[in-house]
Amino acid sequence: MRIHEDQNHEQPTPTYDAEALTKGGTVAFIRLYEQTYTLRITKGRKLILTK
């Protein structure tokens, strides 16, 4: 994790490496409260986040 300084926020915004989240793969699951989301890295090196 890296901290990104954002001039619009009082506290630094955390920055995460997508490849680290997927542990070198192409898919990671992210939980927010009761919901689970799927983060995918495409062959075109773009991110897709779905429910």
Which word captures the global form? globular
Strand order of the largest sheet: 3-4-5
Our Rg estimate from Cα atoms comes to 13 Å
Mean pLDDT: 89
SSE pattern: EEHEEE
Q: How many DSSP H or I helices?
A: 1
> What is the percentage of strand-forming residues?
over 45%
| Contiguous runs where pLDDT drops below 50 for at least 5 residues | none
Helix/strand structural class: mainly beta
| Helix content class | under 10%
Extended strand count: 5
Distance between the termini: 24 Å
Largest sheet: 3 strands, antiparallel
* Assembly annotation: single chain
Verbal overview:
The chain is mainly beta. Helices cover 8% and strands 45% of the residues. The chain contains 1 helix and 5 strands. It has one helix at 18-21, and strands spanning 2-4, 13-15, 27-32, 35-41, 47-50. The strands form 2 sheets. A 3-stranded antiparallel β-sheet has the order 3-4-5. The protein has a two-stranded antiparallel ribbon with strand order 1-2. A hairpin with an 8-residue loop joins β1 (2-4) and β2 (13-15). The two termini are 24 Å apart. The mean pLDDT is 89.
